[in-house]
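Progress report, Aim 2. The chain analyzed during this reporting quarter is listed below.
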Amino acid sequence: MKQGEVGMNLTEVLLESRLVAIVRGISREAAQAAGQGMTDGGIRLMEVTLNTPEAHDIIADWRARHEGKAYIGAGTVLNVQMAKEAVAAGAQFLVSPNVDLSVIEYAVEHGVEIWPGAMTPTEIVAAYEAGARVVKLFPMASLGIPYLREIKAPLNHIPLLATGGATLDNITDYYAAGAAAVGLGSALLPPEALAAGNDEHIAACTRAFVEIAKIKH
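Predicted structure tokens for the chain:
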């Protein structure tokens, strides 16, 4: 199935690039500069959360503008209906803050990559056993690096996308503690750059993270 093959490739893209950009709560206009800057900076996976106004339009815009440079996903996917609408808008992968087995089942059946959010060992294993090939560890800003390191010891077979709290100063600690990839939000999008539509500034911020992610820790 062709769509399923795309999904498989996206896991490979995630594990190779080791970064996902997360955009939340910005305008459709600001998303143009954000998308341009992030793709120019080398980001290959970008998601817009579905609790962002005009999220579906942003997904469609990004697909049209950045096809071939970046893959576009939907975040904060809380139920199957939201998943269906996101895919219809052009989302190539889905991300959630929680483990909803029906959403995972829908994604697996339709060949769409999904990285569900989990916090506890029970949730992480449940998501993985349900078919998620990468599980998002969330909220990392609250859980902290020691938690990631400790949970990877028994669950080293499950790739974790550590999301929350990553900055240029600490992202190497995320990788060193066992994160297969890191989800990045505000660190990539300085408010002043967004306000000014300065995609070059955003590209420079993005490039710094992309360079660090290339270094194997």
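Residues 141 and 165 are 4 Å apart (CA to CA). The two ends are 35 Å apart (CA to CA). These observations will guide the mutagenesis work planned for the next reporting period.
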